[in-house]
Design brief:
By secondary structure, the chain is α+β, with helices and mostly antiparallel strands. The chain has a single domain, classed as minor pseudopilin epsh domain (minor pseudopilin epsh fold), CATH 3.55.40.10. 27% of the residues lie in helices and 36% in strands. It contains 2 helices and 10 strands. The protein is elongated and about 90 Å long.
């Protein structure tokens, strides 16, 4: 135990040193982990965006290659399989609730196949996703080939 000339024990840190270390640590953590709080429906929004991208991709690929592309949705497994120019791929969609088609209405059971031909998809349809606080709908327009994502708060 050492003593200064004034007779005060010099063991330990000063308050200023402790405050400085805490400030530096909090600054490093704030920059390293910008968002600890994830949105409850963050995955829902991500899935809706992925579905919208896949629909655009299938429609554009079918038109440009003049080939038939398919999208199969299995409601029991909540999996969407699609076949494009690069082959078959599968996406798990945990928040999938139903698909609404002009010709068949609401479909929420079994397996559904949507075709994208040389002139694009044959009909308008919408894919409905349900989350904790939000529900989202991915709307596909067969006439324009546009895809729109609509978010609605649950009541």
């Amino acid at each position: 135990m050492g003593t200064l000339k004034t007779g005060i024990c010099s063991k330990g840190f000063t308050l200023l040193e402790l405050i400085l270390v805490i400030f530096i640590l909090s600054l490093v953590l704030a920059l390293s982990f910008p968002n600890f709080t994830l949105e409850k429906d963050g995955k829902l929004k991500s899935e809706a965006g992925r579905i919208a991208s896949i629909l655009r991709y299938l429609n554009d690929s079918a038109i440009s290659t003049k080939e038939l592309h398919t999208m199969k949705v299995n409601f029991k497994e909540k999996v969407m399989r699609y076949k494009g120019p690069e082959g078959e791929k599968a996406e798990k969609i945990d928040n999938l609730s139903r698909i609404t088609l002009q010709s068949r209405g609401d479909v929420s059971e079994g397996e559904l196949t949507v075709f994208f031909g040389p002139s694009g998809a044959g009909e308008n349809f919408s894919i409905h996703l349900t989350g904790v606080e939000l529900s989202m709908t991915v709307v596909f327009s067969a006439l324009s080939g546009r895809v729109k994502v609509i978010a609605q708060e649950k009541t």
